[in-house]
Design goal:
The structure holds 2 protein chains of 2 kinds.
Chain A lengths: L3 E4 L2 E4 L5 E7 L6 E7 L5 E8 L5 E2 L8 E7 L2 E6 L8 E8 L8 E2 L3 E5 L1
Parallel strand pairs in A: 2-11
Antiparallel strand pairs in A: 1-3, 3-8, 4-5, 4-9, 5-6, 7-8, 9-10, 9-11
Chain B lengths: L2 E4 L3 E5 L4 E3 L1 E4 L4 E8 L5 E7 L5 E3 L5 E5 L4 E6 L8 E9 L7 E2 L3 E6 L1
Parallel strand pairs in B: 2-12
Antiparallel strand pairs in B: 1-4, 3-9, 5-6, 5-10, 7-8, 8-9, 10-11, 10-12
Classes of the chains: A mainly beta, B mainly beta.
């Protein structure tokens, strides 16, 4: 079945540094990928919608200059957390959709980011 | 604003008890509906989904859910839970004209006592 791979699964970085998280669709072309953030004991909040070849669409309240999203190919989207701060520590999850009409059914394993 | 509400934050059951987790959404148009499960330390997995047709949908591991359009509800049920069902359960809604965007409920933590 379709698989979405997310890398790294866990990262620890120092305040002020940038971290890149990759989301790959392994056996299908994903025209759309989604980035979610999950705080401890809370639900997933959509951060942005990433469309291949165009700018990402960010949800209200999400800083696009801080969370840079690049969807350079049909199988890869990256989320870069720039100038990370401890409050950015969270669980980041991507999901991928095979086409724009259908809902995403495939989630990555998530990336646990800890900023010290 | 579009939202999804799960009524129970934490449910504790004994094995073999019946389960019903509530989910209501606020959106007037056509929606696709989902239930996801997240076992401790694992990623989200799809339990079941509703796109159209029979409003009673069956998913994996004996779970089912019923879409009641008039009540904007999509409650999850299981007749007899097992200890292995201990997990976090998320209801999610995809407004039909918004691509693959999912709006998640707050989640319900289910603890099943052996």
């Amino acid at each position: 079945g379709a698989v979405v791979s997310q890398h790294p699964s866990r990262v620890i970085c120092k305040s002020g540094t940038s971290v890149k998280i990759e989301c790959r669709s392994l056996d299908f072309q994903a025209t759309t990928m989604f980035w979610y953030r999950q705080f401890p004991k809370q639900s997933l909040m959509l951060m942005a919608t990433s469309n291949e070849g165009s700018k990402a669409t960010y949800e209200q309240g999400v800083e696009k200059d801080k969370f840079l999203i690049n969807h350079a190919s049909l199988t890869l989207s990256t989320l870069t957390v720039t100038s990370a701060h401890p409050e950015d520590s969270s669980f980041y999850i991507c999901s991928a959709s095979r086409d724009r009409a259908n809902s995403p059914l495939h989630f990555g394993n998530g990336t646990r980011l800890t900023v010290t | 604003a579009q939202s999804v509400s799960q009524h129970n934050h934490h449910v504790i059951l004994s094995e073999a008890a019946s389960l019903e987790l509530g989910c209501n959404y606020s959106y007037g148009g056509t929606v696709n509906l989902f239930w996801y499960v997240q076992y401790p330390g694992q990623h989200l997995q799809l339990l079941l989904k509703y796109f159209s047709g029979d409003p009673l949908v069956k998913g994996i591991k004996g779970f089912e859910a019923e879409f009641i359009k008039s009540k904007f509800s999509f409650n999850l049920r299981k007749p007899s839970v097992q200890w292995s069902d201990t997990a976090e359960y998320f209801c999610a809604v995809n407004p039909y004209n918004q691509g693959g965007k999912l709006i998640f409920g707050q989640g319900t933590e289910l603890s099943v006592k052996p």
